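pipeline stage [seq->struct] | target=Small ribosomal subunit protein uS17 | organism=Skermanella stibiiresistens SB22 | residues=88
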Amino acid sequence: MPRRVLQGTVVSDKGDKTIIVLVERRVMHPVYKKFIRQSKRYAAHDEANQFKTGDKVFIEECRPLSKRKRWMVLTDAAAAAAAGSFAG
């Protein structure tokens, strides 16, 4: 089964080897048929502590690393766009 990859913005880098990533998505309201933004925060593993608040990153599902961490940072979104490796 393929692992999910999400794109988001780092909102906290206070933890050691941990960042909090805010992922926003657009969904249609079931009654009003208007697109609304929903957001969710994910704790992601950042081994080198290289990502800071405000960075755009890609995160990937992984095995449980702690009680809350089930995601790992793949790469910086700006670097991925420059390399052309991710479409997003």
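stage status: PASS
auto-comment: The CA atoms of residues 43 and 67 lie 10 Å apart. The first strand starts at residue 5 and ends at 12.
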